C-alpha cells in the first residue's frame, strides 16, 4: 500500500539527531552540521557541513543520514550532500567524488589547479553564459540557446549556477528535485532535449543566495562532477550576473571552452558587460562572443520597430574588442511569455522569427572553431 503520510521537518530533524559523527561523538543536529533542511512533498534535501580534512571519513555518516531520512514514512527521495565549511584545499578528483568538494581557499593558500583535473568526464565543451549585470536576459538566452543547439543535433546540458535567481527550472518547465539513487551521483532532469541541473533544485527555494562562499563552491563542484551528464557535446552554464566567486570557481575548477556574454544595448549594460569581459581576460578564459538581447522592439499591433535601448551597441562593442558578435534578440512579449511559461520560444514556436534569432545565434556559436 502506498504511504500517503507527509513527512515533517521535525521528523527529519529527529532522524538526523540520531546520526552521530564518530569523530566528535555529537549528533548532526547537536553539532549544527545539518543545514538547509528542506521538505518538499515526499522529497527531502539537506547539506552536511564538514571540515574538508574529514571528507572521506564523513561519507558513511552522510550515507547513514540519508538512509535514516529515507526510512521515514512519506519520504520518497533524499538528497544529502556533504559540503566543506573551511578553507583547506582538498586533493582533486576526476570522477564521482565522495567527500566534500575542494575549497577555493583564500589568497596565498590557493593552489593552481592542474589542467588534467579540470576536465569533466563525458563533457566535451563547457560554455558559460555571463552578463555584467542582472536582468539582461542571460537565463532566457541560455535556455533558448540550449534548446536551439539540441535542435541542431548537439547533446546539450544546461547547468544553472545563477544563485541569485535560479530560473532554469521555470524556463525549461522542469520541477522536482534530482534524485541520487546511490547517494553519490546525481541524476539530472531533462526537457526540450536539454539535460539540466539547477542550483535551485539543490537547495531550498530562496536559500542559495544566502549560502556562504564555500557552500556555493561545493554545490557548483558537485553539479559539475557528480551529475551524470551522460555524454555531452556542450554544457552551457548559466552564471550569476556580475563577476563573483562562481565565475572564478568555474574557470579554476573546469576547463572552460569559452564564455558568451549577454548584454542589452544600453551604455550602462555595455559598461557592465566590459567588466565581465575583463574578468574573463584576467582568468584567461577565452570569450566566444557577445549577444545583444532586447535589441529592438517590434510592436505586435502595428509592426513598427523601435530601438528602445539604442540597438547595435553590443555589435559595435564586440568589434571594438575584437570578439565575435553572435547576434541580436528582439525585446518581444512572446519570448518572455514562452520562457516564463516553461517552454523557451525555440521549443514553443520554432518557426517564429523570434526563435530564428536564437537559432541563428546557435548556428554562429556552433560554427566557431572551439565548438567543432
Ligand atoms: N528578449 C526578451 N524579450 C522579452 N522579455 C525578455 C527577453 N529576454 C528576457 N526577457 C524577460 O526578462 C526577464 C529577465 O530575464 P532573465 O531572467 O532571462 O534575465 P537574467 O539576466 O538571467 O536575470 P538575472 O540573472 O538577474 O536573474 C524575464 O522575465 C524574461 O522573460
UniProtKB/TrEMBL annotation:
- Does the record's keyword annotation contain Metal-binding? yes
Gene3D superfamilies in the cross-refs: Fe-S cluster assembly (FSCA), P-loop containing nucleotide triphosphate hydrolases
- PROSITE patterns per record: MRP
Q: Which domain of life is it from?
A: Bacteria
Q: Which UniProt keywords apply?
A: ATP-binding, Hydrolase, Iron, Iron-sulfur, Metal-binding, Nucleotide-binding
Q: Which residues bind ATP?
A: 132-139
Q: Where is this region: Disordered?
A: 85-119
InterPro entries per record: FSCA_dom_sf, MIP18-like, Mrp-like_CS, Mrp/NBP35_ATP-bd, NUBPL-like, P-loop_NTPase, YlxH/NBP35
Q: Which residues form the MIP18 family-like domain?
A: 9-79
Q: Which CDD domains match?
A: Mrp_NBP35
A single Gene Ontology MF term assigned here is: ATP binding
Q: How does it assemble?
A: Homodimer.
Instruction: State the family named in the UniProt similarity comment for this chain.
Output: Belongs to the Mrp/NBP35 ATP-binding proteins family.
Its biological purpose: Binds and transfers iron-sulfur (Fe-S) clusters to target apoproteins. Can hydrolyze ATP.
Name this protein carries in UniProt: Iron-sulfur cluster carrier protein
Q: Which organism is it from?
A: Paralimibaculum aggregatum
Organism placement in taxonomy: Bacteria, Pseudomonadati, Pseudomonadota, Alphaproteobacteria, Rhodobacterales
Amino acid at each position: 500500500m502506498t504511504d500517503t503520510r507527509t513527512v515533517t521537518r521535525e521528523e527529519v530533524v529527529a532522524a538526523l539527531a540520531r546520526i552521530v559523527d564518530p569523530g566528535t561523538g555529537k549528533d548532526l543536529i547537536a553539532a549544527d552540521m545539518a543545514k538547509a533542511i528542506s521538505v518538499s512533498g515526499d522529497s527531502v534535501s539537506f547539506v552536511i557541513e564538514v571540515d574538508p580534512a574529514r571528507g572521506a571519513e564523513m561519507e558513511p555518516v552522510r550515507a547513514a543520514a540519508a538512509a535514516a531520512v529515507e526510512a521515514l514514512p512519506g519520504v520518497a527521495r533524499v538528497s544529502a550532500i556533504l559540503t566543506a565549511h573551511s578553507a583547506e584545499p582538498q586533493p582533486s578528483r576526476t570522477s564521482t567524488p565522495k567527500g566534500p568538494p575542494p575549497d577555493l581557499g583564500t589568497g596565498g593558500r590557493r593552489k593552481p589547479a592542474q589542467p588534467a583535473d579540470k576536465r569533466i568526464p563525458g563533457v566535451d565543451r563547457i560554455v558559460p553564459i555571463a552578463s555584467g549585470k542582472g536582468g539582461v536576459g542571460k537565463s532566457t538566452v541560455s535556455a533558448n540557446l540550449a534548446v536551439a543547439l539540441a535542435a541542431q543535433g548537439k547533446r546539450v546540458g544546461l547547468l544553472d549556477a545563477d544563485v541569485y535567481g535560479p530560473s532554469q527550472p521555470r524556463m525549461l518547465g522542469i520541477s522536482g528535485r534530482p534524485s541520487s539513487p546511490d547517494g553519490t551521483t546525481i541524476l539530472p532532469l531533462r526537457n526540450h532535449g536539454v539535460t539540466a541541473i539547477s542550483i535551485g533544485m539543490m537547495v531550498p527555494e530562496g536559500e542559495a543566495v544566502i549560502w556562504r562562499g564555500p557552500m556555493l563552491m561545493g554545490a557548483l563542484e558537485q553539479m559539475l562532477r557528480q551529475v551524470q551528464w551522460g555524454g555531452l557535446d556542450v554544457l552551457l552554464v548559466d552564471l550569476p550576473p556580475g563577476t563573483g566567486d562562481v565565475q572564478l570557481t568555474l574557470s579554476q575548477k573546469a576547463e572552460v571552452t569559452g564564455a558568451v556574454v549577454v548584454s542589452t544595448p544600453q551604455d550602462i549594460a555595455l559598461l557592465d558587460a566590459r567588466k565581465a569581459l575583463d574578468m574573463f581576460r584576467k582568468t584567461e578564459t577565452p570569450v566566444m562572443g557577445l549577444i545583444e538581447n532586447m535589441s529592438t522592439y517590434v510592436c505586435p499591433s502595428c509592426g513598427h520597430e523601435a530601438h528602445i535601448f539604442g540597438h547595435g551597441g553590443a555589435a559595435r562593442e564586440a568589434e571594438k574588442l575584437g570578439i565575435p558578435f553572435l547576434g541580436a534578440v528582439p525585446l518581444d512579449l512572446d519570448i518572455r511569455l514562452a520562457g516564463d511559461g516553461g517552454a523557451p520560444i525555440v521549443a514553443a514556436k520554432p518557426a517564429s522569427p523570434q526563435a530564428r534569432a536564437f537559432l541563428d545565434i546557435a548556428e554562429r556559436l556552433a560554427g566557431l572553431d572551439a565548438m567543432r
